[in-house]
Amino acid sequence: MTENLDFLGQLDPDDPKQASxxxxxxxxxxxLTRRLQPGDKLxxxxxxxxxxxVARETVKRALEILRTERLIVTRQGSGAFxxxxxxxxxxxxxxxxxxxxRPHVSxxxxxxxxxxxxxxxxxxxxxxxxGRLTPESIAVRVLISDMTVPMALPARAETQSDDPAVRExxxxxxxxxxxxxxxxxxELGDLGLVRSTTVDVRMHRASPLFKLYILNNEEVFYxxxxxxxxxxxxKGEPMAIYDRMGKDVPLFHYAVTDDDASHGTQFVxxxxxxxxxxxxxxxxxxxx
Length: 288
What we know:
Blueprint lengths: L18 H14 L12 H8 L3 H13 L3 E4 L3 E4 L6 E2 L2 H7 L4 E8 L3 H15 L7 E9 L9 E2 L7 H27 L5 E9 L5 E6 L3 E6 L2 E8 L2 E8 L6 E5 L7 H17 L4 E2 L3
Parallel strand pairs: 4-5, 5-7
Antiparallel strand pairs: 1-2, 3-12, 4-8, 6-11, 7-13, 8-9, 9-12, 10-11
């Protein structure tokens, strides 16, 4: 690749992140915004080394980050290429952290409890506390199922029906995650580390069948909750229940591009419209 590489930007000497991480961030942004298209060959390691004024080992570490995230593939003797399909199962956490590199962060979540979001946020917020990430504002909206009302899931397996004791257990999980997100983000505002922080949690009466994350209105991660039968402890006694399984669910990634007709752009826009429609109609305030 010999064309102009100005779209890849320059390293920031005042950025506390290592040069390899900065380079990975530049390349990731180019891939997700389709400046580098699926199947495109990345600039060579010597070209990237020269552009950023770093050793080739630094470039290799940056490419390894992207390879681990399944954004690129490397072919011996040929170089590195953008994966032919980037709408595939991906890791959420690096993208949560990358979203905090923007001055204004917005994250919308819809799903069961938000445990994954709470844990991923914790890492990014820790970096805000020590000054490694410096957003001016953070706005989080969480849309979860109200486990105080009858649900199709979770349910008692023996009767295949709603059970208040099963829902009570699910409600504890839901509240623990929602309260954790509320506390984590609000603390940064209380400490004066972020100029503006808002967290809003709303509930609805539909069973959780999928999880959805919208990052900065530009990226979406979407995954299905498989329904499984498993045994849990209810009031000290084992009980078989039908439950949705959220841990390690594959998340599929879509991003806005310069092409309004692209699959990624349309999926992100449809996700935003769906979220806002539920948020503004059947959802109601969470009383923590």
